[in-house]
Design a protein that fits this description.
heterotrimer, A mainly alpha (329), B alpha/beta (265), C alpha/beta (569), B: alpha/beta, six-stranded mixed β-sheet, four-stranded antiparallel β-sheet, 9 helices, 10 strands, C: 569 residues, alpha/beta, MetI-like fold, 55% helix
């Protein structure tokens, strides 16, 4: 495991400059936004004259050069100060931390489900490339993957919440129900079925396709022929030799998709009114809250980096070649 | 009066934190019209040496004089112009041509770049080159990748002789070919050398094949030349363990009286 | 372009293009089909679909024609999708090219910027960009492109680095070609196709992103878009769900069209590559279905060897094999006998059918290969691969599974065929690794293939092939991928193992002398047919057939006369 740890440490260090670039990007975005933090603050306290604004700017160093302001921004970030949210009138970081668990719950369960179903169906399709089962699954997954998440969410809501009334349409739990313990967990689970199902359905299609494509490529390799020449059982060839290797690109895909999933949380959470990270982004947009929006971007970049570190560790555990010359990581 | 003199060539590669010394203090010389065979097991550094001499890979140290010039000091347009004098034929017959190229494209490039013949005469020159290497002129319009391995290697040789070079580096140029094709290509190379006085640096892991064309043979091991001498002498009386191992490894067609155990372990 | 033709010949490519062409036509003809502003009120509000011929898909809350909206919305979707993808491609290609050619620190710096854009969720970036600058079609295009250029940049760089290492680029440098010309003529044309296949995916992502943005109210308010129509319908979701459903269907159809097109393009590219591979190595595809080589006759129809065939292991009669999609058979009317306990060398050049014979005997022909004639086995039934027959492949670095331990790969055959438990099978594997004389076999059990040299890997493969004590070994060019010193060691090892266990060996090779070293009998193949067979010494000393004579004459060893004279050194 030292090999994986060393690798992870190296990756973690190399993501520092990347994060810095992200921060500079968000800073530029903030600079582009009309008005600065002082305007926003004055707006929130119901206005103030130019003299107060000037004094405030001087106090916060906002009248200095752009480079100096960037330095201020960076040093604030280093103190974990992501700025002040105008729309909510409280610190950005606290808001994000409050909303994050809902999103992580949503994303985590959707990913876990999609991974389980996607890889299983992918193995079923990839076990016999070109078979009827493969063509059906491949075509179906192509169509499902083409469906925009927000629309799928709406359609599922129409069917299961509006028409059939099986499930709640919105929120993360029944408000002011006073439930606790298991009853509360069940309530949350019921609320999560539709959003998690929507996301999981789309990502199942994606994972299925990646797994299937990986397996189709691996069937052509010599070691599979060799496995057949050893007279191994079909199940062992499919699972241990073909699927085992096709798992590697799927793991890579998990890391690559982390950013897309966080982005996708915006529409899903806004449809199902889940008070999460993505909905916060939408609220920041409608509240014209640039500081909050930039804070969200920085935090999401950190999240994606963390997910990728995790993915790297898993990958290194699954592929003995990692960290050697055979696969430059 | 050597055509090429290389001195103390060195090359290191680093991958994954480890440094591999691919070449160490390699010196060799080659006279005009001569073939120097370069033998060695895989990883001995012979292909690296070939790529340094052809200026595909920079050397870390050492010097090369070629045709009276400091060959490693040349750069830019000077180097491109002088490249006409030193050509190369690769091992992988499918990888050595642009997947989109026709036979005529492949031969036209060197003729055009070095203005070997006037523009109007290029088609005729291409025909002559193809004729010289034994490829029907009608193949000029075909995609190189539609040709057989042997024919592709003939086109590669035609491309190499197009600029009328003094030296051709043959990097495992016949290793991927069938024996019958290989034999004909070896004959073609021998005849071309006789006709045009071209020198060859012939890189191969197969001593029997090297012996066919080489006047002298140099044996490499772990980035060094461990032995160098007239071909007959090196084969009859090898001095280094590397050379002896290579000789022992050559399969003999008919069981020989003094058959040693091939067990090299 | 040939690629486009290839793509259109595939059903997915043709379907995808048909969908997109139809949509593009609708989009172009929108002002003619539905003149006027689609955002204007056209009729009664909330007309149900399929009730009013004037509004086939009904009207929305404000009485706007849904069908007109969808057709006009196609303009926005397609335009934004294409424009954003083009912009992303332009940025990505430039950055990728710049990084790969600049190298060093510039490359490093550019790639960190690419990393940064890849870890920021592109939808959040687009959201922020549009909300800060203000929603209009050009801003939306730019915002989407900003989140999409990193993938093509990374791919372009990787492709350039890979293409630049190819021999044909080296050949162009050797020819003295100017660097700019090398880039334009040798590198770019070979880099673009995979980047184009990726750009189809970018178009799809851009269309979906645009829809999501307008759904959230961040689209250009002055044009009708599918996303804003879905959002508009959401207000009356309970009573008129069709308002959201129809534009969504249009969206799905468009994206399916793009994906199909991209799949066609990717498959056409892969097809092109596989044709190349087939030509250079004749590497077939090995799909999962093992198929036996008995031809029409099942195992039950194969009686044991007839009288006068004592010691016969197997005899083929009129055996022909034709691969799927090929016209000429790879093997024609073969009649060949294999004797129990002999060492038979099958000798031939490329295209001789020697490997096809090996696969046919082992029951390992690819799916769809057509087999005629019979193979009779003395035992009655065809040998079971692994148990009765060990198979060794050419390239040891490809024939071992890279992610499984050596121990597992040697033990798995023994476990299956000898009925051993895993610990016992591992003990058997240890024994086999010792027998193929690998150093430190205990350690090797837990090692992975990449930790071994080529010669060691082939020893592992031999150990794995022989682990279940088969009586017959088929080795298909087991030394061609190794260098000569290692080749001699591997041949000696195989010879020794086969002798010690009294196994039958079928050794496939292109090297007549390698075969001569240890085979009892040789069989010479050419163009799918048997040319000559007989005792090794006799055939090689006095070949009867012209082709064999030519092969013997072409052989070179150290005693062969050189083609050049001595030069006074």
């Amino acid at each position: 495991m030292t090999r994986a740890l060393r690798l992870t440490a190296r990756r973690a260090i190399s993501s520092i400059p990347v994060l810095l670039i992200v921060v500079v990007m968000t800073f530029l975005l903030l600079e582009t936004a009309a008005g600065d933090a002082v305007d926003a603050y004055l707006l929130s306290i119901g206005g103030g004259d130019a003299a107060i604004a000037g004094a405030l700017r001087q106090a916060y160093g906002l009248d200095q050069s752009m480079a100096a302001r960037l330095w201020l921004y960076l040093s604030a970030l280093a103190r974990l100060d992501l700025g002040w949210s105008v729309a909510f009138d409280r610190p950005v970081l606290g808001l994000i931390i409050e909303r994050l668990p809902n999103t992580l719950l949503l994303m985590g369960s959707a990913t876990a489900l999609a991974f389980a179903f996607g890889s299983t169906l992918g193995i079923l399709a990839g076990a016999r490339p070109g078979s009827l089962r493969d063509r059906l699954l491949s075509t179906l997954s192509l169509v499902v993957y083409a469906i925009p998440g927000f629309w799928l969410g709406l359609v599922l809501a129409i069917v299961f919440a509006v028409q059939l009334r099986w499930l709640p349409t919105s929120g993360i739990e029944t408000i002011a129900s006073g439930r606790t313990g298991l009853s509360r967990a069940a309530d949350i689970a019921a609320h999560l079925v539709l959003p998690v199902g929507t996301l999981a359905l789309i990502y199942t299609a994606l994972f299925l396709r990646v797994m299937r494509a990986g397996m189709a490529g691996i069937w052509r390799l010599d070691f599979v022929l060799f496995a057949r020449a050893k007279g191994l059982s079909r199940a062992r060839i499919v699972l241990r030799h073909v699927a085992r290797n096709a798992l590697l690109p799927l793991i890579t895909m998990l890391g690559l998709q982390a950013a897309a999933m966080l982005g996708g949380s915006v529409v899903i959470e806004s449809i199902f009114a889940i008070p999460g990270f993505g909905r916060l982004a939408q609220e920041a947009v409608s509240g014209r809250d640039a500081a909050l929006l930039c804070g969200i971007i920085v935090v999401s970049a950190v999240l994606v980096i963390l997910v990728n570190l995790l993915v790297d560790i898993v990958y290194a555990a699954l592929d003995p070649r990692v960290g050697t010359a055979e696969r430059g990581a | 009066m050597s055509l090429l003199v290389a001195q103390d060539l060195g090359k290191r590669f680093s991958s994954g934190g480890r440094t591999v010394e691919a070449l160490r203090d390699v010196s060799l010389s080659l006279a005009a019209g001569e073939t120097l065979g370069l033998a060695g097991a895989s990883g001995s550094g012979k292909s690296t040496l070939a790529r340094i001499l052809t200026r595909l890979v920079p050397a870390d140290g050492g010097s090369v004089r070629f045709a009276g010039e400091d060959w490693l000091a040349l750069s830019g347009a000077d180097l491109r112009r002088r490249r006409a004098r030193m050509q190369m034929v690769f091992q992988d017959v499918s990888g050595a041509f642009n997947p989109r190229a026709t036979v005529a494209d492949a031969l036209d490039d060197p003729l055009r770049i070095h203005a070997v013949v006037p523009k109007g005469e290029r088609p005729r020159e291409i025909e002559a080159l193809l004729d010289r290497v034994g490829v029907p002129a009608a193949y000029a319009g075909r995609a190189v990748r539609d040709l057989s391995g042997g024919q592709r290697q003939r086109v590669a040789i035609a491309r190499a002789i197009a600029t009328r070079p003094a030296l051709i580096v043959l990097d495992e140029a016949v290793s991927a070919l069938d024996v019958s094709v290989r034999e004909r290509i070896l004959h073609l190379l021998a005849t071309l050398q006789e006709e045009r006085g071209i020198a060859y640096l012939f890189v191969s892991h197969d001593l029997a094949v090297l012996r066919a064309l080489s006047h002298r043979i140099a044996v490499m091991e772990a980035g060094r030349i461990v032995e160098c001498g007239p071909a007959g002498r090196v084969i009859a009386d090898p001095q280094s363990p590397a050379a002896r191992a290579l000789i022992r490894a050559v399969p003999r067609l008919l069981p020989q009286e003094s058959k040693e155990s091939p067990d090299g372990r | 372009m040939k690629l486009v033709g290839d793509m259109l010949r595939r059903p997915e490519g043709a379907t995808g293009l048909a969908i997109l062409v139809l949509l593009a036509l609708l989009a172009l003809l929108a002002p003619v089909l539905f003149p006027g502003d689609p955002l204007k009120i056209a009729g009664r509000a909330l007309t149900a679909p399929f009730t009013d011929p004037a509004f086939p898909l009904g009207t929305d809350r404000l009485g706007r024609d849904v069908l007109a909206g969808i057709v006009h919305g196609a303009r926005t979707s397609l335009f934004v999708g294409l424009a954003a993808a083009l912009a992303a491609l332009a940025i990505g290609l430039s950055v990728g090219l710049a990084a790969s050619f600049a190298g060093g620190i510039a490359d490093e710096a550019l790639m960190r910027v690419v990393d940064a854009f890849q870890i920021v969720p592109s939808f959040l970036l687009a959201l922020a960009f549009v909300s800060v600058i203000g929603a209009s079609v050009p801003v939306v295009v730019l915002a989407i492109a900003l989140g999409a250029w990193a993938d093509p940049a990374r791919l372009t760089r990787a492709e350039v680095l890979s293409v630049r290492g190819r021999d044909y680029v080296a050949a162009a440098r050797i020819a003295g070609m100017h660097p700019v010309e090398i880039v334009l003529r040798e590198i770019l044309p070979n880099v673009l196709p995979p980047v184009l296949a990726l750009s189809a995916i970018i178009v799809a992502t851009a269309i979906l992103t645009e829809a999501a943005l307008s759904f959230l109210g961040l689209g250009d308010p002055n044009v009708v878009t599918w996303g804003s129509m879905i959002a508009e319908g959401r207000n009356v979701l309970r009573s008129s769900p069709f308002l959201s459903i129809f534009p969504g269907l249009a969206l799905v159809a468009t994206v399916v069209g793009v994906y199909l097109l991209s799949e066609g393009l990717t498959n056409a590219l892969a097809g092109e590559a596989s044709v190349e591979r087939k030509k250079s190595r004749r590497a077939g595809k090995y799909p999962p279905l093992p198929c036996r080589a008995e031809g029409g006759a099942g195992a039950g129809d194969n009686p044991p060897a007839e009288q006068g065939e004592e010691g016969m292991l197997c005899r083929t009669k009129n055996l022909s094999v034709t691969y799927r999609g090929q016209e000429t058979p790879a093997l024609t009317n073969l009649a060949l006998a294999i004797h129990a306990g002999e060492r038979l060398a099958i000798i031939g050049e490329s295209g001789s059918g020697k490997s096809t014979l090996a696969r046919a005997l082992a029951g390992l022909l690819p799916e769809g290969a057509e087999v005629e004639g019979t193979v009779r086995w003395a035992a009655g039934a065809a040998p079971l691969p692994g148990r009765d027959l060990g198979f060794v492949l050419q390239d040891p670095s490809a024939s071992l599974n890279p992610v499984l331990t050596i121990g597992e790969q040697v033990a798995e055959g023994a476990r299956r065929h000898l009925g051993l438990s895993w610990p016992k099978a591992r003990a058997r594997a240890l024994d086999m690794l010792e027998r193929v004389r690998l150093p430190e076999p205990e350690k090797l059990l837990a090692a992975y293939p990449h930790q071994l040299s080529g010669g060691q890997r082939q020893r592992v493969a031999i150990a794995a092939a022989l682990a279940a004590r088969p009586g017959l070994v088929i080795a298909d060019e087991p030394t061609s991928a190794l260098d000569m010193v290692v080749q001699a060691e591997i041949v000696a090892l195989l010879d020794e193992l086969v002798r010690a266990a009294g196994m039958t060996l079928v050794f496939i090779t292109h090297d007549i002398a390698l075969a001569a070293g240890f085979a009892d009998r040789v069989a010479i193949f050419k163009d799918g047919a048997l040319v000559e067979t007989g005792p090794a010494a006799a055939v090689l000393a006095a070949p009867r057939e012209t082709y064999t004579k030519m092969l013997v004459a072409s052989h070179r060893d150290l005693a062969s006369p050189p083609l050049v004279g001595e030069i006074g050194a």
